[in-house]
Amino acid sequence: MWFAGGVVADGSGTGPAAVDVRVTDGTITAIGQAPAGTTAVDLGGMLLTPGLIDAHVHLGLSSPIRAQFGFRLSAAELAADIFATAGHALDAGFTTVRDTGGIDGGVVDVIASGKVRGPRVLSCGPVQCQTGGHGYYGAPWEPTELWDRHHIPGLCALSLMAGNADELRRNVRESFSRGATFLKLCVTGGVVGGHDRLADTQFTVEEIAVAVEEAAARDTYVTVHAHNNAGIRNAVRAGVRCVEHGTDIDESTARSMREHDVALVPTFAVIEQLMDTGNMDLDSSTRDRVTGTRQRMASALENARAAGLRIGLGSDLIGPHQQRRGEELRLRAELESPMQALVSATSVNADILGLSETVGVIRVGMRADMVAWQRNPLHDAAVFADPDMAVLVVKDGRIVKGKAR
Questions:
Q1: How many angstroms separate the CA atoms of 400 and 405, rounded?
Q2: pLDDT band for position 275 (50/70/90)?
Q3: Which single residue of 7, 55, 267, 398 could bond 312 by disulfide (Cβ 3.0 to 4.6 Å)?
Q4: Cα–Cα distance measured from residue 214 to residue 210, given in angstroms and rounded to the nearest whole number
């Protein structure tokens, strides 16, 4: 089948071109002009882009946050919210996501099997955190050793805690056994969390290196939740391959990341989400922490760009309001350009996720993940943020949203 009559922005950063795309058995097999009389999907002049990739999602945090962390929701309701969020991601044009903590392997499996609508999912399984550190949301009076009893195997697994390197090694091996394809560690405090501060560093260099060693043994990598420079530098020294958030990255830290080929995934949309008190049921301490974070993250983005880092894109949305996942592209376009936001959300993210040989660009030999936009998001990046603008979504060569004309 040909997808014809549109304009293609292939995800590489080169200007759009009026070409047609042929798909055979889920793979792009030709780019050019569709032969006369051939079977074709008429794009009617719309812009066709690669399927978007969100490198920082939390499918397992799709329910009201206080109710979920208070363990007041049934497994059925949690599952319903998770699966709804997966469908919303697909409808917004995201054909691949990297879940950075919150789901167990069962969610990945049911989406991959087609039983539930959703994007291709890569998952770290439970987040790795130090005892009582970021990623631990138990009540202050509850002994931390009871935390993992709240997991729902096959569905939700928020975090595993470790008090030393041996415990961390056991936990990451447990995560891999439950389907993780990479690891995520929290190496600083966070915004949504009552047990730490943004300035805290967590896990030692030696402890982080244990996770790096275990990941390398499985030919994969470690990414880290990190806001402050001290925590980021610890992680870089230990050998991680990616930093999430990176709120306070300064010039010297950015240069160190570049020297060690460490990528960055900024997350602006969650900051906007947390500042919207009407949508988020969070306490005042969280709102206090988020104050000033966006401007610092914007400065970090400038430092990262100047240092030549690979800069991906992640939304980090939490709670039940995750329909507008493309808001991250709109926010990034304000700081850079719509084309740079698109490239970060496609080819750069594919590279960071280790999928650059299969997705992220519209090119012969790649999987046919594509989105046709009703209006051109390169002219108005707000289009990326509106799921209704993604009128045709193709995943693995199948139309999963919209109708062929």
A1: 14
A2: confident
A3: 55
A4: 6
Length of the chain: 405
Closest by Cα among 20, 45, 16, 25 to 35: 20
Is 309 in contact with 253 (CB distance < 8 Å)?
no
Nearest-angstrom CA–CA distance, 202 and 204: 7
Please provide residue 149's backbone torsions phi and psi, each rounded to the nearest 5 degrees: -70, -15
The end-to-end CA distance of the chain, in Å, is 12
Find out whether 361 and 11 touch, Cβ atoms under 8 Å: yes
Residue 2 CA from chain centroid, whole number: 30
Burial 318-356 (b: 16+ CB within 10 A, else e): bbbbbbbbbbbbbbbbeebebbbbbbbbbbbbbebbbbe
Higher per-residue confidence, 151 vs 367: 367
pTM, to two decimals:
0.96
| Kind plus residue range of the DSSP H or E element containing 207 | helix 205-216
Residue with tokens 């631990």: 136
pLDDT digits (tens, 9 = 90+) for 61-114: 999 988 888 889 999 999 999 999 999 999 999 999 999 998 999 999 999 999
